[in-house]
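## Example pair
The file below holds two records. Each record gives the amino-acid sequence first, followed by its structure token line.
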Amino acid sequence: MRFAALAALLVGGCMAPAVQVPELASSQIAPDFASYTLRRVGLLPFTGEGLSGEESRHLQASFFAEASTVAPFEIVPLDPSDVAEIPTSDPYRRGVYKPRTIIDVARRFNLDAVFIGTVTDRNLFSPPRIGMQLDMVASETGMVIWNSAVYLDGSQQQVRKNVEIWAGVGQSDLESIDWRLCLLSPRRFAQFATYHLATQLAE
């Protein structure tokens, strides 16, 4: 889903490749998005039921690598130790964020907003499956002002074709690797998902 207000604020991204990777994620912005000043946005470690620390860090690093090429603001990855004492909100289950969570993070790192990512569904076996949600929460109000979601099922032909394109147009480090390996590696498939979340920042 495209939003003109967000597109007008996002400049300086990389030039698009000759072959575009079809979008599989969706995104939304708040009506007052343009009223927020975004200079530094924190990126918390991803969370999700059964997600290991290593998997959480990999998702965080993957999204950071992709989003940093299109976002006009600085993205600040936060280590688990940086937020260990900050109460968790469990927003996917509760539907809200505890104000203290956002305020504590923002004050500590001088952030205008915080990215909070959640793995909502996944299957590590073939065919792979993963669902992810990413919220941008404003430090000023504690409200979600942008969010993106993606659900990828490796058994679907559309997804498999998309992986093949993604692996061959310079969007990843997989040019010399058979794209089918992405469907056998949970780590690669998760990287594919974070790519789609990040592309929504350029919409």
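Second record, same layout:
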Amino acid sequence: MTGASPAEAGFSRRMPAALLALLVAVRLAAVAIQPLLAERVPDWAWANNDGYDALAANWLATGAFSLDPGVPTALRLPLYPALLALARLAAGPAYVWATMLLQAALSVATGVVLFRLAAELFGRRVAAWTVVLFVVHPQVNNFVVRCATETLFTFLAAAFALAATRFARDRRGRDLVGAAAWLGLSLLTRPTLAALAWLGLASLLAWSWAGRRDALRRLGWTAAAAGTTLLIVAPWLARNWVRSGGEWIWQTWVGQPLCQGVYVSGHLDEFLQRRKSLTELDQACLHDIRLLDRRLSRTLAAGRAGIAREVVADRYFRARARQMASDRPAERARLLLRNLLWAPVLQMTWRGTWILIPWNWPLLLLGAWGAAANLWKRPRRWREFAPTLALFAYVYVGHAATWPQARYVLPGLVPFLAFSAAGLAEAFTAWPARAPAPPARRPSST
């Protein structure tokens, strides 16, 4: 197994027509059978998950980004509600179907990006296997027809990984700016990669100063990349600064999910022992959070409302989450190791978890094998492998430490499928030959 040579790089980026047709057909089939799935599994029906649908409706009706009409909020980020609003504007009452078709198109685009990423890392054969793994993955298909950010965020994460990989290989400034643009859009979808953005900026500054003669040029591209990300998120930050009364706010729905994650992680053994579902644990935590929120509301000044009130609540729950996480550090370390095992497959019920166990655990093992084998055989290419591996490790470990759930690991797992396919190729390469042994030669008679 070898990576794509420079001579075939342009050809390797083009996905075979049959593979593209398969990807389109499967995603459209997921949309077509969604009513049947929703009838059999009501949890998979289109719903106003996390308020995104309400945000889109209120945005169009009142012009304000709000969960409650006329009350501005920063509890959610704006890019996914903007996609829902676009579908509502274009399709009217049929907006649900329009949204699912948009998400199917995003998933197809993700497959194309994934093929290019794997082809540039490992060649077309591995790229084809990568797309097949992506096509048949049950959770990927599920989120195409759900009101959730997963499909959009996964596309942005894959596009970021591809641009960052090209920059690591060729050190072209345009690839760096492209990666920064995809990163900025991801930060308007979920705040997940915010810490990774700061780590990336520190790495770029170190790279710039190490350039000696061309340090100024490198610093220029680093500034252009940072400026691109800032330009994308600046309108959202400025809007929140004005609405909150002078606070630089990214999102006010961070502290509460952290509290939920720490609580669920601490009680996860009840789920693993089948005494409670993850939904029951989550609801128990939300009950406590609502009581604490009411108590907090009584201590706030009468003028605190809207985003200004959300800021206070978010800081309160962040502090509470840190306090909960700091108790019994040795126990928290044990829970992290346990969560690393379960986070890639854990869903809200055992039924959903059992669906993912035969998929994600083998994919992780194959990916680990593919990464180790290629780093061993081609150590000089570690910079090309680093962006995808770093993205996956960051998302995987970060959510194992905070909110261990498979849906949150998925956007990092999808680009990592390139390494799973590479591990699959290694497995076939290592498979013993089964050709029949040649017949024994008869001794010649004299």
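Notes on the second record: The chain has two domains: 10-250+328-428, 251-327. Residues 5-11, 433-437 have pLDDT under 50 and may be disordered.
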